[in-house]
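testing teh design pipeline on a random one, pls ignore if ur not involved
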């Protein structure tokens, strides 16, 4: 066997092995679908790089059941130029309690510049049950810091991070949290034209248990219109 054929055989075997590991890990972690082809958007261009595409999103208004009120100036409507968001990534905090301000302090203590999520949905401990807290990144339309996937910066660059307080490996989120999650995701879907095929749990994009084995994907996706 010549050197070229040998290398080709080794690389092919490695690819199969790696693929098998990924599939086993995904099944073990509860992956329900493979990621779609990634969207690579520039970060260094700032908001201007996204403004033209995002302008199309402004023509899509939230449904009447959204707290954004279906009009400009709602509490979830950014005050200035909007990023062309392409993904929604759902998380749990993996803690029994917490809030946007508490997680902000935790993230800063670990060297991050601020809270990594764009939205945090409380469970009634340190913020109200089902209360949606807007993270400091969202009004600035700043890229997320919640889903680092090697080779795929788009899940942070143009992915909205939504975190529900709780550890859903041990219990399910409250009904109020699920209802608020549906409203937030519906708002993002309507405003930015994000299809359900680009809405993920964190563990559907990388090997992690987040957002927990008991996260109710069917209830969240089934609640969208």
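output:
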């Amino acid at each position: 066997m010549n050197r070229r054929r040998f290398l080709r055989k080794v690389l092919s075997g490695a690819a199969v092995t790696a693929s098998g590991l990924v599939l086993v890990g995904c099944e073990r972690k509860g992956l329900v679908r493979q990621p779609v082809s990634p969207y690579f958007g520039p970060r260094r261009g700032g908001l201007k790089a996204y403004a033209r595409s995002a302008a199309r999103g402004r023509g899509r208004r939230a449904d009447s059941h959204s707290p954004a009120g279906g009009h400009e100036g709602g509490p979830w409507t950014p005050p200035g130029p909007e990023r062309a968001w392409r993904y929604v990534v759902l998380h749990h905090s993996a803690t029994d309690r917490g809030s946007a301000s508490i997680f902000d302090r935790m993230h800063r203590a670990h060297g991050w510049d601020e809270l990594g999520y764009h939205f945090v949905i409380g469970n009634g401990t340190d913020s109200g049950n089902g209360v949606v807290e807007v993270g400091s990144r969202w009004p600035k339309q700043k890229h997320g810091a919640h889903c680092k996937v090697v080779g795929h910066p788009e899940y942070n660059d143009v992915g909205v991070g939504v975190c529900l307080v709780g550890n859903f490996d041990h219990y399910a989120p409250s009904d109020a949290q699920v209802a608020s999650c549906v409203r937030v995701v519906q708002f993002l879907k309507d405003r930015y034209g994000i299809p359900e095929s680009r809405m993920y749990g964190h563990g559907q994009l990388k090997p992690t248990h987040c957002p927990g084995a008991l996260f109710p994907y069917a209830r969240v996706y089934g609640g969208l219109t």
